[in-house]
């Protein structure tokens, strides 16, 4: 099923591919997806020194400079690469890291993700927390902290309704969550795209690239949210096109199903 779903998703993103090339890309994506879950399961047992050997960061100084000036940091990510491992690497460097995640039904998968995120040092706000969750994110940002938000999955079918912005990645018309840009505007925080990609078999195997803060745009608040979200989408979309097999999202909003 994962191979089929990734074949469909990658085919939408990379319409120039077909036949064996697309099947091979989907196969590599399936292997990468399995490696993601394996790494997630072992995350609670990784020492800080081991994490440092596995992960390399680029652009962190600019993030820290913004925080030193009192500006919160909204970090915008996709389900790209090993994002929890990146969080485990980044959290101690940022003085903590808050994120939002879907509440999974009780069971082994929920236990695995909960343990891994706790081990990563992430503060997790449930996606269905409503106003209380939003207030927590605002508080972190107004205190000059960092919030990491994944924007590519639409949780509307899980009962989490939130505004979204149409964007384009390669040949795929899809949507990204509008919330991160709205939070940045409401709190004066920087909004930055962040990519997490794998670099091959040699250490460090995972690259975390912090992008520049995007411009705050012009016009109405809604127009600015859309402009800021699309600015992030251009950076994140470029990473998807260069590292397509690292994109683990199997349910794409706006994808042909």
Would you kindly provide a written description of the structure presented here, covering whatever features stand out?
The chain is an alpha/beta fold. It has one domain (2-246). It is 47% helix and 19% strand. A 7-stranded mixed β-sheet has the order 1-9-8-2-5-3-4, sandwiched between helices. Strands 6-7 form a two-stranded antiparallel ribbon. A hairpin with a 2-residue loop joins strand 6 (164-169) and strand 7 (172-177). The longest helix is centred in the N-terminal third of the chain and has 24 residues, at 19-42. The mean pLDDT is 91.
Strand order of the biggest β-sheet? 1-9-8-2-5-3-4
| Binned strand content | 15-25%
Query: Which geometry do the CA atoms define?
Result: globular
The value of Rg in angstroms is: 17 Å
Provide the domain count. 1
The number of helical elements comes to: 9
Label the structural class.
alpha/beta
Helix % is 40-55%
Which regions contain 5 or more consecutive residues with pLDDT less than 50? none
Count the E strands: 9
User: How confident overall, as mean pLDDT?
Assistant: 91
SSE string, helices as H and strands as E: HHHEHEHEHEHEEEHEEH
């Amino acid at each position: 099923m994962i191979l089929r779903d990734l074949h469909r998703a990658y085919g939408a993103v990379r319409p120039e591919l077909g036949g064996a090339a697309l099947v091979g890309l989907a196969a590599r994506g399936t292997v990468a997806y399995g490696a993601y879950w394996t790494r997630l399961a072992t995350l609670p047992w990784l020492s800080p020194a081991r994490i440092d050997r596995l992960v390399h960061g680029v652009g962190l100084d600019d993030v820290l400079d913004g925080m030193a000036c009192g500006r919160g940091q909204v970090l915008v990510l996709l389900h790209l690469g090993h994002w929890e491992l990146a969080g485990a690497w980044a959290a101690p460097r940022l003085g903590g890291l808050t994120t939002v995640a879907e509440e999974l039904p009780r069971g082994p998968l929920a236990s695995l993700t909960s343990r891994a995120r706790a081990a990563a040092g992430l503060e997790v706000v449930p996606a269905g927390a409503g106003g209380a969750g939003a207030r927590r994110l605002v508080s972190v940002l107004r205190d000059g902290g960092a919030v990491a938000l994944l924007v590519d999955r639409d949780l509307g079918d899980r009962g989490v309704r939130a505004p979204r912005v149409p964007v384009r990645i390669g040949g795929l018309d899809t949507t990204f969550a509008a919330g991160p840009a709205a939070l940045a505007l409401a709190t004066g925080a920087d909004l930055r795209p962040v990519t997490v990609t794998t670099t091959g078999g040699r250490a460090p195997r995972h690259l975390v690239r912090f992008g520049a803060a995007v411009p705050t745009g012009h016009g109405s608040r809604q127009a600015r949210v859309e402009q800021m979200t699309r600015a992030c989408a251009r950076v994140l979309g470029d990473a998807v096109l260069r590292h397509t097999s690292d994109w683990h999202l199997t349910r794409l909003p706006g994808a042909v199903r």
